[in-house]
Queue: 2 jobs
Job 1
Amino acid sequence: MARPTLDGLGEELLVNLMTKVSLTCRQGDALFDAGRFDAAEAKYFQEAFEIVGSGLALPTTAGDPTGGVICDLYVGLNLWKRANLMGCCVGIAKCLRRKNDIEMALAWCDEVNVLYRCGFHQLPQPIYDWIDWTPDIPELTLLKSTALCVASEILAELGNSGTATTRRWNAHKTTKNLPMHHQTTLLHGVLNRALRNKMLELRHPDPHAPLGTGPLVPGLQVRGSWARLNVAKMGGVTDGREAFACFIWNSHLYVAGGRTSSTGPFHRDMWKLNLNAPEQWHRLPGYPVTLGASGRFIGWTMLVRESNSTVLLFTGRPTIDVFDLTSETWSSAPLHTTYTPTAADVEAGITDGWPWPGKVSCDATVMFSASQNTVYVFGGSHARSIMGCDLFMALDLATLRWRRLSGSVRAPRVANNGCPSPRKNAGGWASPDGARVYLLFGHFDREAASVYNELHGAGEAFGHEDFWSWGVKEEKWRRERIAGNPPCARTELAYVYNEKLQRAIVFGGYHPTLPTYVLNTTTGRDTQFNYSYFGDTFLYDVAPSPSPDHATPTSRAPKWAQVLTAGFPTYRCQAQFAVDSTTGKTYMFGGWTNNQYIPTHTQMMSRSFGDVWELRVDLPGGNFEGVDVEEEGRVARAGPWQRCWACAAAGPWKKCGGTCKGRVFFCGTACFREGWAEHKRAHKCRKA
Ligand SMILES: [Zn+2]
Ligand SMILES: [Zn+2]
Ligand SMILES: [Zn+2]
């Protein structure tokens, strides 16, 4: 709506007046505050449908063609109607939370986020997600923040500390630079600085969080277990790898290339480990192409083609290298792919006849759809962009021809709302039926921009918070809702689609701008990291089968669930998942972490991991049968920390010195005295 130009005071008066007239949701708030919760809920619903009409189901649910983030009806709402509808959504979320309908309460909080996001589509020119556009209506600011903080409280109760903390941090970030008339007592009560600072001390998962062994919230939580494989002999990749390629074939885990640390050594080798008898890594022929011809073997992806027992290596060159898994040799007949740019492709910056400048691509999201016989490549960096691009290409393996589906060679000056913005190290997978290709999070390296004279530079990287899917038939992107109990924004995450579980799985990664505070109880000095590393695990279910006692509209919709595990691998980025298609088991290997982020005695700034883990989840086919949940709760390591056998607290505890050879740990003499008798009995330990 057009607002007359007035001086500051006049404008404020007008805003106050409009607030009173337009925000009928406040009638619901009055009922809520009077304790008349059913009447409040009814009022919120009535006012909400007054705005959207009867044609729209509220809350709109994820997944179906109308269930994306962008809703034409919402884009068409003026700011006051938008604020009023947000008020109704927040009110309904609060009412449902009181009734313990957690999933629906979260869906209504997300509806506020969607309403806010749709506002961006009213701007005369699309803007990138890293620009936070806030209309000058304090009520709208308050409602947006309230929805984030209500969701944060619910997620914290669910034990999803990463997403809970990110939501509360985002509420702070989106409001901190707004003018004084937004900074109301009410807003600051919602933002709750003390709670925010407390939450920023958490790790995700937090080793001190109580181990929920009680009943889970169906649909939002799944029990799981991380088990480390005991590779007896050192050597090969056991000294740690980052930015490597990784896959599983015939129950063997393969790792190729990458580096030991950011300063090297840089590898071009290949190794395999028998997952059924993981005694040692075996060396295979290294990558035969010269460094001069291919560049470093960093941030590349290898894709298994079960149909002919080969694996493909995409490097950004027209030649796709092929490794024959049966003969264990690099094929002398690699795939020679071709590409002919269209006029639109040239317009998109493909000027030298090949999509990736310098014929290199790294940190792209490379996905294989077996049912479409197609390789999809999104984003990544190349010779003319180190920040990450939004180029989306498809290679038809039948014709060996590339085609550009969306995006440009370099990040355009003006954003495009219709496709994911530029990024690298995103997660992604093709749905098994070949109908959709998913893209999750990743980051745009704005810090690196100035070095290479690229657009959109800034002092810090931007961590994408979005989730997209590409409709293969309609050739269109849809920005997806992130429903359920989801992971927070992150990049360099481990991801895979497990066909046996029918779930995508996500683990770890890092958030480039979510701070972590570390209180040192010995020195009394605090350290603040401007980033966070994660060790949490999530599943994405695209077609949940709703339980009969849960008839809400969200129960059938695609959604995320957190996997709750007593132990977990140390917080890290660049780890990789792979699924053994023979057994359906999910394995994770490698990655790295900043050493200051975890307790350590070394002087090195970072360390990479060479460990192999199996993730077991309590779902059909999840290999959970052998897991002793109670025992795990007392012995499983919480990231870098041991767990005390007696009290289950996590910390740098001492091993039991008995004949058990350190099967359990104790946090101190009190717990040792208390737990010794039981440990003796349970593990047949004797004083050594
Ligand atoms: Zn990293
Ligand atoms: Zn203890
Ligand atoms: Zn012992």
Job 2
Amino acid sequence: MALLDEPATTPTALVGEAPPSPAGPISEEELAGLAAPPEVPLPGALQVLRFSQRQIEFVFGGRRRLGDVFRFHGPVPGRPVLTAHPDHVRSIFTAKVEHVPTLTSESPLRPVVGPNSVLTANGPRHLRQRKLLLPPFHGEAIAQYREMITEAAEREIARWPVGRPLALAPRMQAITLDVIMAGIFGIEGKPSPGTPEFGLRQATRQLVQASTWPVYGLVELMNLGNDEPIGFTKAGLRILDGFTFSVIKRRRAAADLEERRDILSLLLQARTEEGEPLTDQELRDELLTLVLAGHETTANQLAWTWERLTRTPAAHERLLDAVREGDDAAASAEVDAVLHESMRSRPVIPVIGRRVQAPWQLGRYGVPAGTPISMSILLVHHREDVYPDPFSFRPERWHDAKPGTYSWLPFGGGTRRCLGAALAMAEMRVVLRAMAQRLDLEAVDPEPERAVHRNVTMIPRHGARVVVRRRL
Ligand code: HEM
């Protein structure tokens, strides 16, 4: 009897569901019957600054005071409305493409990668570029990069000192740069000084490094709304472009072009439905898009993963045991659980947006056509009803649960879902596993690292500082 009276001791599910909330395109009459979303009561300029520099405090504060949906002043024209509800996300990811153009077409990346790249274009142009780029990013095509990624990871890990503090983010960037150079440009190992390949590698590294300087935030705001880059961005790009065009020219003339599997060589051979090849400018725009979209994101997501693991002993130990015990299936499952939880709790891109082209319902609120809607990945990922104990890092949530399409969105979704998701997952799996196999890591400071915002990403303030205690 006493047993029956005891509260249930089985843990409740660690992944749940949000209560339903109606959302989607509506008529003007329906819009008239709905309330407008509540507004953040702060001066506009201050809101833009807070959203760009302190997004976590800003969005969590907004939700606490105003609920799942609120209007604010953001870095895009028009007053964006932010939502934290998976049903609202679903209404946007499943909408007709012409109803939901992406806000990246208005982002500071536009003058850098041009208005016609897969990241910035909308409508038929976007579909055309996406179709051309998809084949080399397919899961099967990515499988062939595994070996190359393993080599890049092992090479890098072997260099790290034992017993001295080390920031992981730049180390992870060294690996992701190698992967990009090999997978995208087909440049393996260290190119010889003086060649365009060498220059391209150096210039890419410098541009990405410079983009993490604090002043770059200002440069980024200055570039907003322009079609052409200005100032520092323009100077840096001119150098990078020179090398990129030289590499394209040399590859076009390469005798082994048809046998090559790197993305540049595949794109050089790709044809549109009208039988047209990509121009050099189009190739440059897409290559730069892939470099910028794929390099810092993957590196910082890995850095966050270790920032969390080294502060969560139970999860850390479980991963090391799984990886070192030699059962491949168990190791893969634990690696995936850790990555899913890392991307849930520290999504390196914390928000994505669309400008709706019809009046839209978001729960009990309505917004007119033309409103930018920001889907806060960060807030969706921290809903108590979907993820009980949301602020804890608990990879075990994912032992019996699959990530939900509209409640786990680190790669966005719909027709704009991250093109490099399979490549990013492959890279992160290989690197995480190699590190867990070889290294005992410890956080330099037991306090969690705060997040800072660089460009569109949210990264660990000190780059996830750790000490290698032991190398196996
Ligand atoms: C952990 C690593 C990564 C994360 C978290 C990430 C996240 C994202 C997100 C949130 C979007 C916007 C999706 C949307 O608006 O619905 C996106 C788009 C994109 N990503 Fe990634 N990404 C990662 C790695 C990569 C890699 C490795 C590449 C390629 C080398 C890449 C290429 C792209 C491209 C081309 C787009 C634009 C797709 C489109 O608009 O059609 N990403 N990514």
